[in-house]
UniProtKB/TrEMBL annotation:
The modification N6-(pyridoxal phosphate)lysine is found at K255. Its cofactor is pyridoxal 5'-phosphate. Keywords: Pyridoxal phosphate. The keyword NAD does not apply. GO terms for molecular function: L-tyrosine-2-oxoglutarate transaminase activity; pyridoxal phosphate binding. SUPFAM superfamilies: PLP-dependent transferases (SSF53383). This is Aminotransferase class I/classII large domain-containing protein. Belongs to the class-I pyridoxal-phosphate-dependent aminotransferase family.
């Protein structure tokens, strides 16, 4: 950058960082900010947010009072004012290991659990640890965009395999095999899936694990929506297939307890055959953890009680609410000709719908659709490109029921107003 000072040109040595610029435009937050800037201030109706991933502001999705108590008790105890250790305090690691083992055919060791500041920090740490020069990683398309951003930022090459809408959003395993080479380090799967709303079957997860084993790559299983399965398929953790291939499991209390702001997540290394250990990767992971900030100690201190005192009834009633929202969402989508939902949502809080632009006039693409929708109807829906699929939309259905119903009536009006008139 050059600036003229007193007639002479002064040079400054710092400026935009191209690496960051290239990786940052992918964020969901940025798309949402763009959409909010299109809102019409003259519209007196409340804005309906069906683009976000955080239902915690809605009273229907408030967290369990026992979790709030656990946090208050932890702070009052004065036992958690100290620094944490880099993989988390022992009682938190133990509580998470036991929590995850409840549904498994074996016990996870607390030594394999590393506490992080939300699932996102686990992604950051893992991607940083994997990013060696020349390496590449296989990411699903569509996907949760933080993987792409962090990989580009760490200069880890990204190769995309498709999730197949015609096969219930299963992984295109042939594509995975075709994409991988001897510099491929890992494959990411998100189950239950943000953004697609599907849940992988046990058989499919096993095939993913077998394919990864054949290719000699790590499986990263993002299970931040663990147990958000309300369709026919039960949630099965990739942890069940760690005998086949080394697995790193990612999770958090963010989504299941509706407290993403508490920033508590985990990264669990499942390595029964010591492949991660013997290759040196386990040590690298610890080194990266050592240079990263820790989750707040009092939140970690509260974890045993958050997990121990939340009744099953809390989870089942929230799951039922999300299922009800998903049901309404799917029915309403079917009433709108210009969008189609290839798979009825059966997990997470999202669904993907395809835009049929040929039925619309004066709408050029998904982003245009969403910007005009924000402006004309004060309704926020995420353009598919934000998660890697142009001319699709990602709809969040975990909101208050009246908002959801109102949102769909606005969407219907919008679609009608912009549909091509019959000659
Ligand atoms: C929300 C989300 C995350 C991030 O979780 P935090 O605990 O809020 O950091 C990671 N992966 C997916 C798929 C998510 O939807």
């Amino acid at each position: 950058m050059e600036e003229v000072i007193g007639g002479a040109k002064k040079r400054w040595n710092f400026g935009a960082n191209e690496v960051v610029e290239r990786s940052s435009p992918l964020s969901i937050r940025e798309y949402l900010t763009t959409l909010l800037s299109h809102l019409d201030a003259g519209d007196a109706r409340p804005v309906i947010p069906l683009g976000h991933g955080d239902p915690s502001p809605f009273p229907r999705f408030s967290t369990d009072p026992s979790a709030v108590e656990a946090i208050c008790d932890a702070v009052r105890s004065n036992q958690f004012n100290n620094y944490s250790s880099s993989s988390g305090i022992p009682i938190a690691r133990k509580a998470v290991a036991e929590y995850l083992s409840r549904d498994l055919s074996y016990q996870i060791s607390p030594d394999d659990v590393h506490i992080t500041a939300g699932c996102l920090q686990a992604i950051e740490i893992l991607i940083s640890a994997l990013a060696t020069p020349g390496a590449n990683i296989l990411l699903p398309r569509p996907s949760y965009p933080m993987y792409d951003s962090r990989a580009s930022f760490s200069q880890l090459e990204v190769r995309y395999f498709d999730l197949l809408p015609e096969n219930g959003w299963d992984v295109d395993l042939d594509a995975v095999e075709a994409l991988a080479d001897d510099k491929t380090v890992a494959i990411v799967v998100v189950n239950p899936c943000n953004p697609c709303g599907n849940v992988f079957s046990r058989q499919h997860l096993q095939k993913v694990a077998e394919t990864a084993c054949k290719l000699g790559i790590l499986v990263i299983s993002d299970e931040v929506y663990d147990h958000y399965a309300f369709g026919e398929k039960p949630f099965v953790s990739m942890a069940e297939f760690a005998e086949i291939v080394p697995v790193v499991l990612l999770g958090a209390i963010s989504k299941r307890w509706f407290v993403p702001g508490w920033r508590l997540g985990w990264m669990v290394t499942l390595d029964p055959h010591c492949i991660m250990r013997d290759s040196g990767f386990a040590k690298t992971l610890i080194n990266v953890l050592n240079m990263s900030t820790d989750a707040a100690t009092f939140i970690q201190g509260a974890i045993p009680d958050i997990i121990g005192n939340t009744k099953e009834e809390f989870f089942s009633s929230k799951l039922e609410m999300v299922r009800e929202c998903a049901e309404i969402c799917y029915e309403e989508i079917m009433k709108i000709p210009c969008i189609t939902c290839p798979c009825k949502p059966e997990g997470s809080m999202f669904t993907m719908v395809k835009l049929n632009l040929s039925l619309l006039e004066d709408i050029s693409d998904d982003l245009d659709f969403c910007c005009k929708l924000a402006k004309e109807e004060s309704l926020i829906i995420l353009p598919g490109r934000a998660v890697g699929l142009e001319n699709w939309l990602r709809i969040t259905f975990a909101v208050e029921l009246d908002l959801l119903i109102d949102g769909f009536s606005r969407l219907k009006n919008f679609a009608q107003r912009h549909s091509k008139k019959q000659p």
